[in-house]
Amino acid sequence: MSFIRTKKIKGTEYAYIVENKWRKRRKNKVKQIMSKYLGR
């Protein structure tokens, strides 16, 4: 599953696509990976 997240860096907002990856070795925990930068 992927979604759009905004991060505020030095007062400016940036948009990123974030994906969830399941980690089977770590007791079924989810790791969020920022896959692409979309822009301001």
Question: Would you kindly provide a written description of the structure presented here, covering whatever features stand out?
Answer:
0% of the residues lie in helices and 78% in strands. The chain has 40 residues and is mainly β. The chain is elongated and about 35 Å long.
> Could you give the order of the helices and strands?
EEE
What is the number of E strands?
3
**Category from helices, strands and their pairing:** mainly beta
Query: Which percent band covers the strand fraction?
Result: over 45%
Query: What is the helix content?
Result: under 10%
Please report the distance between the alpha carbons of the first and last residues: 22 Å
Largest sheet: 3 strands, antiparallel
Report the C-alpha radius of gyration, rounded.
13 Å
Number of helices: 0
Number of domains: 1
Taking pLDDT < 50 over at least 5 consecutive residues as the criterion, the unreliable ranges are none
Overall mean pLDDT? 85
Shape verdict: elongated
Strand order of the largest sheet: 1-2-3
